Amino acid sequence: MKPVILDVDTGLDDACALLLAARHPELDLKAVTCAGGNVGLDDVVLNTLTVLDAAGRPDVPVARGAAVPLIQPVRMARHVHGADGLGDLDWPRSTRATDPRHAVELLRDVLREAAATGELITLIPLAPLTNIALLLRTYPDAAAGLREIVFMGGAAGIGNATASAEFNIWTDPEAAAIVLAAAGELGVPMTMYGLDVFYDVVVTLEQARALSGSQSAELAQKLIEKRCERYEADGASIGDGGAVCAVIDPSGLTTQPFPVRVELSGSWSRGRTIVDTRDWSADLTSDPHGQAPSTIQVATAVDGKRYAEMWL
Ligand code: BDR
Ligand code: CA
């Protein structure tokens, strides 16, 4: 089994990711950490506990993390995910308590233990990267417990929060820059599961409505229905769920190594991931002025059908 941690801002599609990570037989979900993003932190935490309850996984520790981005004010996406972040479903809410540790401390502890045992963790951030930046700046030694980071965020092509920027990176660009730098500074292998593939893992309404027989199947069905409603379509992407599929079966994802930077200024481009796809971009990694971008794996294509079937 592959040990994984999810960092989430649950969110309808984070919920799709949680259900898969909690129930797939090849994953060992060690912990879930929460950050403000799609909705405020209190709602994110409650949604996360609720989804894990539905998945039959009250054993997974869930920790509260950063409520707001490092520098800029919080901006949410209730227009996409509903007022409560979970589509305002008529669904019983969890009464379970969170882990007493801050998300950064929970991450630190699980990663240090992984470094000690050699059972390295795949970290799957699906939210603004605030918690992960705080972790890497506060406890850089914890990176020794990481096998890799596969994060949902960014885009080589167009954005969604703005024409330039994807929501998770746009929400906390400074945190994203810190995490990307860690790929180079701390040698953490990293994959960017961005908007170039994010919308391509689609579950149809018909497929979703055929799900039954368990609480998680019922919730999965409702999540897709809500996303279809939002996009006025008869199918919807599982969004963040695709990043979990990519960890389970990396052969369904095409990636290419590219230098990536985060735009931290710019009037209309703040939060954009600048993916340098030029032929000679590899030369830039030896920049003598210490300004070299980190080269990471960027997802450029996905076998959407295969991942949708896996999720179903
Ligand atoms: C990302 O932003 C959030 O709204 C989704 O949960 C996903 O993580 C897509 O840009
Ligand atoms: Ca998310």
What is this structure, in a nutshell?
The protein has 12 helices and 11 strands. By secondary structure, it is α/β, with parallel strands linked by helices.
Q: Structural class of the secondary elements?
A: alpha/beta
Question: What's the overall geometry?
Answer: globular
Q: Give the ordered list of helices and strands.
A: EHEHEHHEHEHHEHEHHEHEEEH
Largest sheet: 9 strands, mixed
**Range of strand content:** 15-25%
Q: Mean of residue pLDDT?
A: 95
- How far the N terminus sits from the C terminus, by CA atoms, comes to 20 Å
Radius of gyration, CA atoms, in whole angstroms: 18 Å
Helix fraction by DSSP (H/I, runs of at least 4): 25-40%
CATH-wise, what's the superfamily?
Ribonucleoside hydrolase-like
CATH C-level class: Alpha Beta
Q: Which second-level CATH architecture applies?
A: Alpha-Beta Complex
GO biological process, one term: purine nucleoside catabolic process
GO cellular component, one term: cytosol
Keywords: Glycosidase, Hydrolase
Protein name: Pyrimidine-specific ribonucleoside hydrolase
Textual characterization of the structure:
It comes from Kribbella kalugense. Pfam families: IU_nuc_hydro. Keywords: Glycosidase, Hydrolase. With 312 residues, the protein is α/β, with parallel strands linked by helices. It has a single domain (2-199, 238-300), classed as Ribonucleoside hydrolase-like (Inosine-uridine Nucleoside N-ribohydrolase, Chain A, Alpha-Beta Complex). The protein is built from 12 helices and 11 strands. The protein has helices at residues 12-23, 41-54, 78-81, 103-117, 130-138, 167-171, 173-185, 195-198, 205-209, 215-231, 241-248, 304-311, and strands at residues 2-8, 27-34, 62-64, 121-125, 146-152, 190-193, 202-204, 235-237, 253-262, 273-275, 294-302. Strands 3-2-1-4-5-6-11-9-10 form a 9-stranded mixed β-sheet, with helices on both faces. Strands 7-8 form a two-stranded antiparallel ribbon. 51% of the residues are buried. The structure holds beta-D-ribofuranose and calcium ion (CA). Residues 9, 11, 14, 38, 126-127, 240 line the site of calcium ion.
